[in-house]
Amino acid sequence: MGRMPSFERSAVVDAARDVFWRRGYAETGIAELEEATGLTRSSLYNAFGSKRGLFDAVLSAYLDDVVRTRLRPLGGGDPGALEAYVEDMRSAIEADAPRARLGCLLLNAGSSPLASDDAEVRALVSDYAAEMRAAIRSAVADRRPDLVPDAVDALAAVCASLVVAGLTLARADRDAALATLASIPSTLESWG
């Protein structure tokens, strides 16, 4: 019988997430992951199979712990949910929170060389984008019940695009990210 791991898997994934988020998949070395997690290379490989296996675990946890946690309120019938979602992102970026300054881990992965070579990463990012668009569409429908479904779809597409642009800009141009996200409430109000 094999020896049971003596570490908390979620803590390892969180520590690795910070490294991948800051440096990207391709630029992250195993030595950095060892240092961040406190595990040896062999322990990481035994637990996750490979650097890529660890990255997959990181993306999965990020999707569940960060993305879905933030998207969940958007489908709850609260007409102010989208503005609250956007304001939460703006506050984190404005406060220069370390993770907010790094943008969205999934969007970063989707724009990296890894995504161009890897169908699984492309599919994960595409599924995330679809999930985000659906949540935003639900929030737009709650916020603007006066609009016909086609107008709700169009407005939701614009709002989702602004969210993606803001999260993408957060890494390189904080002020542009803030301005882009700040335009969502007025876009919601003036549409149609």
UniProtKB/TrEMBL annotation:
Keywords tagged on the record: DNA-binding, Transcription, Transcription regulation
Domain (HTH tetR-type) ranges: 6-66
UniProt entry tagged with the keyword Cytoplasm: no
DNA-binding region boundaries: 29-48
GO terms, molecular function: DNA binding
Source taxon at top rank: Bacteria
Pfam families: TetR_N
Protein name: HTH tetR-type domain-containing protein
Organism: Microbacterium testaceum (Aureobacterium testaceum)
